[in-house]
Design a protein that fits this description.
GO terms for molecular function: hydrolase activity. This is Alpha/beta hydrolase. InterPro entries: AB_hydrolase_1 (IPR000073), AB_hydrolase_fold (IPR029058). The chain is of the alpha/beta class. It has one domain: Rossmann fold. Strands 1-2-4-3-5-6-7-8 form an 8-stranded mixed sheet, with helices on both faces. Strand 3, helix 1 and strand 4 form a beta-alpha-beta unit. Helix 1 runs parallel beside helix 10 and helix 2 packs across helix 3.
């Protein structure tokens, strides 16, 4: 894993520090920006982003969102609101791109799970600044299968070695876990829905999901295609919620074809 750098941003009347890394920085292909899942971080991606950048001869930017990885933790008393992904997409991500002097790039956003939802929300406002978008196991609305799996994660965090395993990837593992878990299981979050925003997207989309995703049904990516008919779908067999771990070769192949079509 490469060395991490840090950048400070002013957000919501405070300063936060985000951990980031460049991948394959000398490549001349498009810039790929990776947005991790709801319990993710730079290190939780493992080496898949670097492998994808090598395979596609692309540059990569991977970063840990606020409260994750080695980025600024969430204070224990801070409760996230149902629009927490909107805030990340419309407030923090534009600030990060500006601070890294990437405003004139036309990147491809590659998001997983909550990161895919954030990428979709960003594209709903900034499609004109993007080459394209890969949404891996995205959430557009809340399903019972998601809530039951997230409730199981809560039990496992309290009662199994899950907390110790996650602690290797986060400066403050409780900040990362409870921020995510508490808001997803909050009664107000059941009505969370970003279909209206997704309908505004005009850049090319590849939507990918495992056939055995334990956090969402295939209605999630099929809904993207209903709202944005040009969307390409990839449904991966023998694959759960993390295609970059369960079917990394197949995922890389689909993204490689998508990127080739963009440059053509």
């Amino acid at each position: 894993m490469s060395h991490s750098d840090y950048i400070s941003l002013s957000w919501q009347d405070r300063e936060i520090k985000l951990e980031y890394q460049w991948l394959n920085a000398d490549a001349d292909g498009p810039l790929l920006i990776f947005l991790h899942e709801g319990l993710g971080s730079i290190s939780m991606w493992r080496d898949w982003p670097a492998q994808l950048c090598q395979t596609t001869q692309s540059r990569g930017l991977v970063f840990s969102r606020y409260a994750y990885g080695r980025s600024t933790p969430r204070p224990p008393a801070e409760q996230w609101l149902p629009d927490f992904m909107h805030q990340q997409a419309w407030e923090v991500l534009p600030k990060l791109l500006e601070a890294l002097e990437l405003k004139n790039e036309k990147p491809v956003l590659i998001g997983h799970s909550d990161g895919a939802s954030i990428a979709l929300l960003y594209a709903s406002r900034y499609s004109h600044c993007m080459r394209g978008l890969v949404a891996i196991a995205p959430h557009l609305f809340v399903e019972e299968v998601s809530l039951s799996s997230i409730a199981v994660a809560r039990e496992n965090y309290v009662n199994t070695p899950l907390r110790e395993r996650l602690a290797r990837h986060h400066l403050d593992v409780d900040s990362a876990f409870w921020g995510w878990n508490d808001i997803w299981l909050h009664p107000e979050f059941k009505s969370w829905n970003i279909e209206a925003e997704v309908a505004q997207i005009s850049c090319p989309i590849l939507a990918v999901q495992g056939a055995d995703d334990e956090y969402g049904t295939l209605e999630q990516i099929r809904t993207i295609q209903l709202l944005v008919p040009s969307t390409k779908l990839a449904i991966l067999a023998d694959c759960g919620h993390s295609p970059h771990r369960d079917q990394s070769a197949a995922l890389t192949n689909h993204i490689q074809q998508f990127l080739s079509a963009l440059s053509a």
